[in-house]
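Weekly modeling sync, notes
Attendees: S.R. (lead), two postdocs, one rotation student

Agenda item 3: backlog of single-chain predictions. S.R. asked that every request posted to the team notebook include the full sequence so nobody has to chase files. The rotation student volunteered to paste the first one in as an example of the format we agreed on. Action items at the bottom.

Example entry:
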Amino acid sequence: MYGLRPFFKNMIRKLLLEDFDLNLQASVRQQAEDLQASVMQMRELEKHFWAATVETDAGHYDVEVVITPARIKEFSCTCFFSGRRSMCPHIAATLLKVRSFLEQKQTEKRILSTEKTQKEAASSHLTPKAIIQAASEQDLRDFLLEYARRDVDFALALKVRFARQMNTREQPWEKLLDTALPKHAEKASPSDWKRFLNTANALQQHQAEAVKQTDWSEAVAINSALLSKLGELRWPQKSSGKQGIESLFQTALAQLTNLPDESLSPELREKVWQLIMSLGQEGKLAQSALTVVVPFMARKAQETHYFDAIKQSFQQSGDTSGSFAQTTLIAAMLGRNLPEAALKVWESQTPTLTPQALADVILQWAAWLPGEAISRLLILALKQPDWTPRQKTQIENALLELAIKLNDTEAQATVFRRRFQETAQTSWLERLRDVSGAQWPEVRHELIFVLEKMEDKAPLLSLYFYEKNIEKLIELLEQQNDLKLIQRIEDDLLEFKPEMVFKAYQRRLVDYLSDHFGAPSLAWVRLQLANLLHKGQMDMVISLMRFLVQHFPERQALASELLELFPKSKRKGIF
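Predicted structure, as returned to the notebook:
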């Protein structure tokens, strides 16, 4: 059987016809695609045995392949030479055409089968629509009841679909969830929990539809039922569905608290409020739920009677650090734009909160309530004396991000002023001036007043340099005579006023050598000059060296010690 030419069996038979081309070299695959139109006289000589002729400019090539039934088993081509085993473009082109032909045949077969089925169904009139139309109402009812008794999933789907048609006094949504809950949670199977999750998800879809139709009463009822039941549920710790339950609870909580107050009746608003309060007081709200509850409480506290209720709840519960009552009280104070009072509540628990813990709490609230009250709270927090540099930076970053978002120029100015006072970088001073606008003269006056009282004079020096106030610069440098001070802004001064840097080094080095002697003093002088040398100020360093040697002629070792700054090849001619 098959042709006379020898077939080659190798790793290619491990490939399927449907994706063999993905394993070809790119060049072979491209040639094969180009040669498809040149495959002629393709025929199936025997079952699974195909032959074809590939016509090219270089000549005609006869190809034979065996496919059993969809796996490429053997192949041959007249282009093969002794020792070749890999697939050539002619075989690949033939296989592509065979695959296309078989796929077309399979599609035609499916179409014919579908048409046949449709014709048979039409001729017998046994479509679902026809059956329902022919059945009596009692027959349909009996069928649904019988099917629901046999299939639990269908029964639950049926209850979800028609629950709203029950008497609302019977609380259909809670009853529906009770039905879906496994009777014995510790013995429930994964399929039992999956069934419950499917039911809860279906209820949330009903809730979304109720909101779309502005049926607020039903939206509140569904979410209330979900939160009540999910809050009571003790999900098995090792169950993979625990995360699904937490997600459902969080979604229902967000949906309930985001319902528009102006569209709800007073009764519905009170129902929502009471439910959230009871969930919190009973410890059924996880930490993640506070991202939703805190903004809700802050908004509600703007109404006096809710604010009073929150204060009363806190007084009755006691001052417990991190409790729901304390959290709602802080949210209420921030909602009424009373950040000072909120900070006092936190300060009352400082014995139990480390500075880092308090910083973390404040930053968390900045994410929960990004508004004016939090902006003011962060400004107040920055005045606390116990922050580490890292904590101060974290709080300042949060304040700056929030201030930019709210276009709060006063808060932005607070951060820019602090950053400039800490770093003496003129970039922060420039941002402070820009954000101050027309108020800059007053802001500048207050800033200079503060800077003059600071022990670190680098920010004041930086301000004078930024304003090109040479007179004040010289006056301050003469008063301080501190080389470290000028080194804080040395890079800018070297570009703008190098002679001022030269005079400052000259004066400070002379004063130092007048009071200090020996090798350590010379090492200190070399270190200061090396600082300038590393910044490319060779001429200035040489001028300072010559000045010092002339000023201290009695220091015989001074010249040789200073020459140590340079390699031997560059020391000639310095003195």
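Discussion: group reviewed the output briefly. The chain has 28 helices and four strands.
Action items: rotation student to repeat for the remaining queue; S.R. to check formatting next week.
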